[in-house]
Write a structure and sequence with these properties.
By secondary structure, the chain is α/β, with parallel strands linked by helices. It folds into two domains: 148 residues, Rossmann fold (3-Layer(aba) Sandwich), CATH 3.40.50.10740; 175 residues, LD-carboxypeptidase A C-terminal domain-like (Glucose Oxidase, domain 1), CATH 3.50.30.60. Helix 10 links the parallel strand 12 and strand 13.
Length: 343
């Protein structure tokens, strides 16, 4: 079977809803400024009620979150679902989503990262519809979008049968401190980007169907009714294999190792041709046990290429990765290229 891709064209309409965390009053500026920036590009924005509320780590009750999300997903006038940001409790809404109804409705773009990847990952693995991992809505409040963040429009308007290429960033942001102190002013890039190849192997290329997201949240899906990874791989990736992309925040080397170990022994890396590891956010070694140690202990015996410190996740900027797309990734001299084919 083939992955199905949403087909959209300008002018776009974005539905902003908060299936995880909402936006507290002192940060609502991020929503209004992002909406202004999009209006300058003739992009319409519909902001749902869940966006404006926040209580006990959630935008609102799981019932209200699902109701609004489903309305946006089934509304044919909305092209893209783009939450304000992530959070911690998106998994609560998964049992309440009418997955059969979504299968009938056809594909629609969901774009975001962090806890939003819990939704997009399950959406793709359950339905076979593509979804996207990348910039959140609040990050579009920047006065000027960086080269990687701005690619979201090109990626989402790429049609089935076509391809799109993205390149690694020149610099990344090592800390969110300036962003928190100066909201709606964009990222503050201060460190040179270098994509790294585990073990400095000569194999600097990998191909396969992209699938992945935030390691913190994907890990909790294992063993639940929403773990559709095995049937997804068998149905859509049996010929080309997979490229897994994973990023994390607030996990030390041991936590990353344990999470990867769990994915590995649950069979998620079956038919895996390679792995992309994003720059780890709020990361620490565990004494002399490092991220490189964790990656070697998990992947060396699999004999597959692993690229790390890639532009994915909580240490911006980041690529826009499409779950289900056929990807080709090449790293040379610390620089990387990702080509995605919508086939």
């Amino acid at each position: 079977m083939k992955i199905q891709y949403p087909s959209i064209k300008a002018p776009l309409t974005i539905g902003v809803t908060a299936p995880s965390s909402g936006v507290e009053q002192h940060l609502r500026l991020l929503i209004t400024e992002a909406k202004k920036k999009l209006a300058q590009r003739d992009i319409s924005v519909i902001v749902g009620n869940t966006t404006w509320t926040q209580l006990k780590g959630r935008s609102t009750t799981k019932e209200k979150r699902v109701f609004e999300l489903m309305n946006f997903l089934l509304d044919k006038s909305v092209d893209v679902i783009m939450p304000p940001w992530g959070g911690s409790f998106l998994m609560e809404i998964l049992p309440l989503i009418d997955w059969d109804e979504l299968k009938k409705a056809g594909p629609k773009w969901i774009l975001g990262y962090s806890d939003i990847s819990t939704l997009s990952f399950v959406y793709t693995t359950v339905t076979g519809y593509a979804s996207a991992h990348g910039v959140n809505f609040t990050e579009l409040s920047a006065p000027k979008w960086d080269d990687l963040s701005s690619k979201w429009i090109d990626v989402l308007t790429c049609h089935a049968g076509h391809s799109i290429t993205q390149n690694s960033s020149e610099y990344f942001q090592s800390s969110w401190e300036h962003v928190f102190k100066n909201p709606a002013t964009g990222f503050y890039f201060d460190n040179a980007t270098e994509w790294k190849v585990l073990n400095n192997e000569l194999r600097n290329r990998m191909t396969g169907r992209l699938i992945g997201g935030c390691l913190n949240t994907l890990q909790i899906l294992i063993g639940t009714p929403f773990d559709y990874v095995e049937p997804f791989i068998n149905k859509y990736c049996s010929e080309e294999g997979t490229i897994w992309y994973l990023e994390s925040v607030g996990m030390d080397a041991a936590k990353i190792y344990r999470a990867l170990w769990q994915l590995k022994y649950n069979g998620w890396f079956t038919k895996c041709n390679g792995v992309l590891i994003g720059r780890a956010g709020l990361y620490e070694d565990l004494k002399d046990f490092t991220l490189v140690d964790a990656l070697r202990d998990i992947f060396d015996e699999m004999g597959i290429p692993v690229f790390y410190d890639v532009d994915i996740g909580h240490v911006p900027p980041q690529l826009i990765l499409v779950n289900g797309a056929l990807g080709e990734v090449v790293v040379e001299g610390g620089k990387g290229t990702l080509k995605m084919q919508f086939c």
